[in-house]
Structure formats: structure tokens, C-alpha cells
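User: Fold this; C-alpha cells only.

Assistant: Input:
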Amino acid sequence: MYVKLHNNDISPDIVKLRWRDFVGPAGVAHVGRFNSSLASTKRLHMHRHDFAEVFWVEHGRGIHLINGRQVRLARHQMVIIRPHDCHCFACDSDQPLVVVNVAFREERLTSLLQQYESSMPDWWEVNELPLMVDIQPEQSGLLSQLADTVTRQLDEPLALSALLMCVLNFASHHQRDRVLPRWLSQAMRQLDDDNDELADQNVEQFAELCGRSREHVNRVMKSTLGVTTTQWLTMRKLEHAAQLLRLTDEAIIDVAMDSGFENLGYFYRCFQRQFHQTPRQYRAWTRATVQVGS
């Protein structure tokens, strides 16, 4: 069911938004918040841009007019917009539609993926519509908190990278459950639910959990997710380590051990490659973010 939009509701002109008009020479991102109740005009302006963006719905419901289609928007939905997409928002209820938007150069995303020997996912290039993901309320809250940090550090690449890593993580979990064979997604969910089992996993044990050969699991992982089994297990263990650093006061050596890293030097190298900070810097940064945002 769609809102009936009349021709005079939509401007016939498509606006081209340019990066240089939003961000200064040293800036790496632009953060905005769209509130339909504060919009200066009720006429809708379709627009394209020469940059990418991610947005999520903080409040209300609405319509996303995107590439000639109307798609429902609801609270706690995240959408990743590509430079070639043409879109705008419309409110479809008495409640205002509140959307948080973070704009960034496409090269920032490709550079981040290249660090993990990954390429742009298929949905970026192939799909008619941009990727839309239902996220949990706490995930939406985390994105908003990270966006606030980006706002305070607009010339700091690390703040944007932390947010984009979070976005890619949510997107990959969404795509995982859609495109992976049932046996593989079930094994992954089992590790999601049991951090102790995750810490003890190696490639052979994960293959046994999947009920398939090591070679077959690796081929499927590579063809569907673009990473090897080893790379995926390492990323998941690092995500768990990051959670422990955020939420506990465990010594860093204990965090490493509890996440499945027996060699502290190797843990430091892997962690810094994924999060662009040492574990100690990451813990201090996330706690400073919480204190400022609380």
C-alpha cells in the first residue's frame, strides 16, 4: 500500500548535490538529520549526488522515492545509497519522519574493503534498488552515537571508518541470511550465540560444525561473502574482542585469550588492521564517546 503522490507534490527538476558544496577541503563526512515536520517546503525534490551515503530512520514512518519506485520506510531501517541512485523522502503519517544521514566519498568505502582483501558487494553494483536492512533498536542507537562522534570529528577518518565498519557488519549479516546455504547460516548463527565456542573455533572445527568438508566450506564462503573461512573467523573473533573492550574492564591479554587469540602480538596486529586503532586506543575512544553522548 502506497501513499498517493500527485504530480505537483514532486518537483520536475532533479537536483545534483555535490561533495564540494557540503564538506570542506579536510572533511571526510557530512552528517545531517532530516525531520519532515521542520522541512521548509512540502514539495519533494528528487536528487542525485557525486558521493555515497547511509541513512537510518530514528522515528516515524515514510516513503522512500528511489529510482522510480516507492518503498516503505519504518523505524530502525538502514539504507545504503549509491552515487547513481536518485531519491527523496515523503512522510505518510501524522508522526514526523526523522532520518539520520551520513554522506561520504565512495572511495572511503572501497578503501576500507580493500584493507580486508574484499571487493564491493554485488548489491552495490547490480541491484536496481539500494540495500535496505532492518536493524535492532540498539543497533540504530549505536549508529546514531557513532554519527554524533563523526559530527565532532569531521576531519578524522577513524571516526567515519568506525561507523562504516558498523554499517558493513549489519549489511553482511543481513545478506548472509539471504544468500548463504542454510547449513552455513545455521553454523554462523550458532557461533553468534556462543562466544566461548567462537573463541575455540578453527577452520577444521567450523567445517565439522557445517557438516561439510573444509574445502567446500571455503569455496562457498569465498563465492558468497568474498572472504575465506579463516578471514571470516578472524573478523568475528575481533568483533567479540571489541565488544569485550567496550563493555568490560578485562585486561587486554584476557580479552585476547577470551576471543581466541593465544598470541598477544598477533591479536594487536589483527585488531589494528580491522579497527585502525590498538585495543587500548579503541577502549579509550569508545568510552570517551559514551561519556560525551550520555
